[in-house]
Amino acid sequence: MPRFVGRLGAADAISATNAALGFVAVVVAPTAPAVAARIVLLAAVADGLDGVVARRYGGSRPGPYLDSLADVSSFGVAPAAIAVSVTSRRWPLWEGSPMAYAAVAVPALFVAMAVVRLALYTAYDTREDVTEGVPSTLAATIIAAAVLAGVGTPAVVLGATAVFCYLMVSTVEYPDLLHVDALLMGVVNVLAVLLPTFQGAMFPYAILFLALAYLLFGPWFYWRDVDGDDGEPTPPCEAPAADAEGKRS
Questions:
Q1: CB under 8 Å to 96, separation ≥6 — which residues?
Q2: pTM of the model
């Protein structure tokens, strides 16, 4: 065991923590979906932090794989469990209605598409500053923030989960967040976790607004200045290739 652990770095420890948070969210979701939503938002903070640490101190060879495996837990299985918990209260499975079956089938498909998306990302998505398809982190954040803000009704959660099943494996290109914007999202995430009911759920609403804005407008209005020297934003299709070990989802 030490021989393998010695090959891991600080970023990998954060990724492993991310995976553990996903498990805790799954356990909590059936009885307390709002608490599970807070844990998912905390996992999103850890997911951003491991990338920062990897860039600052260097990543490991298993890093991209460990990161994607952790994301399956926190941003695949955990939000699906939250969706089942919310929707089953409206359409319990024991009723045997079509909506009750859909309340389980759609989150199951969400998990499958998240796994596919993360596998494709790890294998092929090596371009710097851009990714293809909606990140699973973004999908999970929107579902969790909606539940935490109190607007995640069963119909809304089930519909959003179904839409993300397609968007995660779509060909729409999303620029990565600038560091300052990622930091802002991280701070608001932490505040939503710590103070979910402050001023009428102000912070969960803020996360939901920011995440939806990026989801809807990011591919068209959030070009990044990759070159950094001419002031002209570089479209994602022109972004240079990146080292697979240095880019974490």
A1: none
A2: 0.86
